[in-house]
Amino acid sequence: MYHKEKSIQIKNSASALYNNLSVLRIAPRRLTYFTVVHANVVNMVSASWDGLNYSHRQLQSKEPNVATSTSLIMQVAFCVLPSRDLLVVTSQKGIQIYESDGSIMVYWHALDTSDAPTAQAVFARGISAVWDNYICVGVSSGAILVFDVPSKGSNITLSEVLEEHKEPITDIASECSGSQECIADLVSADDGGNLCVWKSGKEFQLLNKIPGFDMSCSSVKLWKGIVVAGYGTGQIHLFEAVTGILHAEVNAHARWIYSLDIAPFSGLLLSAAEDSLVRVWHLTVTPETNSVEVAHLHNECVTDTQICGAKFCDGDGYAFAVTGYDLSEIIRYTQL
Amino acid sequence: MSVKTLPLVFINLGGEMLYILDQRLRATSTSEDNSEKVMNDIVGTLFSKTFMDELLKPQQLYSHRTLKTVLTRLAHASIMRLNPASMDRLYELTIMAFKYQVFRCPRPKDLLLISYSHIDTIRELVKDTSVVVNQVDETHRKIIEVYSSLSEGEFQLLRQTLLIFFQDMHVRVSLFLKNQIQNPDGRFALPTSGPVPHGIVVPGLIRVFDSKGREVRRSEFPAGGSYSSPVREGSFELHGDRVISLGMNMYVLGGTVKSTKGDGTPNPLAKEELNLLACLIGSLKAENMPRAEYGFRINLFTTDQEEEEEADGTSDGAEESMFGVINIQAMQDEQSAAELARITGQFAEEEEQHENPSGNKGDDLLAMMDDL
């Protein structure tokens, strides 16, 4: 179904972090950006569609104007809003927001370490754009910071802090940005496997809480009102977001899942885990019968590699890219 | 990231170091008295309450440079002396062994089982000296107390912190290559077969449910590997069968290593911790060494030059290398101990200075950006 393409070499190897690959497709310029985290550095590659031009950039997580101490980065993600695309970097020290090409930092938010108990690690993790103008970022305390983003400029403000989770946030996902109307448009996951379903707005509304089973949910996606969650047990659960009904359970992987992605136009689902396997599935949602179907389509094995990031490169799922721990390349696959 | 890595790092790296030292001491026919003394001194220092308490404080993981220095001091807490080349190779070997264990760790919390395996073997190595065995037991109890309540998510964060620390190290170890757990390019093997970890289900099943939670359909898919059901869970108690083999002593023969390029820039904050720890080791060693006995040098790994010398017909390395211990070490420790209070005070001040600017700098940047 898919075959391997030429890999993209990156400057450093990928770190073992959840969801360690972000992809931004820029159709007008026939380019795709990829970002991969290596310890305290973001490796950014811009690849032209004809495969001839690659340009590299590195971003460090540091507080502006503080010479010492770069801090370890937990996650990097592109946030696509109707008016603009931004790049968000979350680390132990804080949250940085850049223009999507990584050229200018437009915002820095320092994490408040004062009231965290010192025995716990402090970091930000979990990034998603929501609706027209919000970017949500999770924190190790379980809080979710909601930033209000203007259509241009750097006047980004912290609009709300959602305090529902008690454990470190692992991942956040949304659907229906811009035009579509959805009942629920945001889902957040934590280290205990608990999921919260939200409706965005001037004040975010908690629609549902789906309890976990003491196992980390490392990656989560929202599509057609269905929450797709990947766990440390290697399982994927599909829930109806608003009601919490479990539609399907897949014993997908033999080790911890590190990344999930959905191609929204085709309903293809990508799952990747520490067991060195990437799997492609097809989801069908039938609203009339309120049922969900999961079909397995394809496997790829990246030999001897614990995979840490896997993303579709386009909305149809025609191509996908994969990163692995200690691997200095982005492996690509395209449909035959 | 994780602020709880250090105790496990030292137990496991220290353990691997002791496995290698034990094997090499036997191979070079070092006297039993000397071997026992080396083991007791190192284990006694590693598992001392002061040392462990310092490690148990929540803090970031050290840099490679700092870690290697502290491990060197640990090795030299005994009457044995290692030349820098031996110490470099010892460090590489222990790091690669621990990297392999962390990489192949079935579940994140099995990091504890690996650590307990190391402690089990260490206990065996010093079993004839009850004082040291008690220290090991006490530390083991403390570790159980501190780590047993961590969630799987916290263990995974700990594991990820360690994996970042080991990143890009691909030193080839002949023992690993021979056993095919490492590939010729230095990467570790990751089979898609064998038992799944405890608590994980063999992949291959899709189950669909109705709105009342009843299963309406199940289907299978090709999992692309040959996995089997999990084996029983290892024991997390003070004594017990750990079940998984990671962390057990795999040294029968010494390994030869190829050198790698050096690691990154030094971490200025870790320097203060290094001094403090070094002081602790130093002050302990001064207590434990009442008489100026002679020590011995040992070359752990033969270099090309040494192989040539041996070929010339000289006897085995350890015997001819014995000579008096250099007491410079003791002098340095006395000086460091006197500096201890000053350094701790200095570190506390520096920490405060470092914390304050973050908020201000953020505001400055925002103000600056608004003006653009």
Automatic annotation (TrEMBL), chain A:
Looking at the keywords, is DNA damage present? no
- Keywords noted in UniProt: Repeat, WD repeat
Signal peptide coordinates: none
Gene Ontology CC annotations of this record: centriole; ciliary basal body
Q: Where is the WD repeat-containing protein 54 beta-propeller domain?
A: 1-334
Q: Which GO terms describe its biological process?
A: cilium assembly
Q: At which residues are the WD repeats?
A: 250-291
The record, for Gene3D superfamilies, names: YVTN repeat-like/Quinoprotein amine dehydrogenase
- State the protein's name: WD repeat-containing protein 54 beta-propeller domain-containing protein
Source organism per entry reads Monopterus albus (Swamp eel)
Automatic annotation (TrEMBL), chain B:
Q: Which Pfam families match?
A: Oscp1
Q: Where is this region: Disordered?
A: 348-372
Species whose genome carries this gene: Monopterus albus (Swamp eel)
For this protein's source organism, the top of the classification is: Eukaryota, Metazoa, Chordata, Craniata, Vertebrata
PANTHER family, alphabetically? OXIDORED-NITRO DOMAIN-CONTAINING PROTEIN, PROTEIN OSCP1
What's one GO-annotated cellular component?
A: cytoplasm
Q: What is this protein called?
A: Organic solute carrier partner 1a
